[in-house]
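G., the chain you wanted modeled:
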Amino acid sequence: MKLVIHGKNIEITDAIREYVNQKIEKAVSHFQNLTMEVDVHLSVARNPRITPNQAAEVTIYANGTVIRAEESSETLYASIDLVADKIARQLRKYKEKRQDQKTNVQPTATVEVPEQEQVVPDLIGDRTAELPSEVVRTKYFAMPAMTIAEALEQLQVIDHDFYMFRNAESGEINVIYERKNHGGYGVIQPRNGNGHTNGKNGKTAHSNSANPEKSKSGQI
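Predicted structure as tokens:
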């Protein structure tokens, strides 16, 4: 297993490196056959208004699947403990799902296609779109085509409340997200100039999967 440790606003000392190795190796010890590379990102927020300000993020590349967890606390060592426990749970969930697929026992999910929602044709008008003055972090990753069901599986193991993917049916970029207030999941699809999507149903789809985890950000 390849373990890579990065730091932001913090020096990665030998003691920190040894602690990360100990905790992460223990967390993934039962999943060595799935784990190819582990990326650990440790950071300390300089802004005193940000509390808790010491964060640990773990990203695991497992047979083409990205599994991610992030935790923050008042101390870096506590954050490492928390994120190690969370990534172990994420790996366990991923392994159980793979076993279910092999035995053709998959969790059932219902998909609802609601009535067409009113869409504002232009939110920008004559204004010029402006990017934030500072890009904090840039990520690059492969985006193979997948179904909505496969994208939902990815969303459930990355510790985010949304997941961007290339729709296998339309070839377009879609976003699947957790619906914070109403539960279940939603899918955002692009529109053409004529007001229609290139997808089959042309509408935003919502899937009500059992036991979704709580979303951490605002609702679309």
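Residues 105-124, 201-220 have pLDDT under 50 and may be disordered.

Shout if anything looks off.
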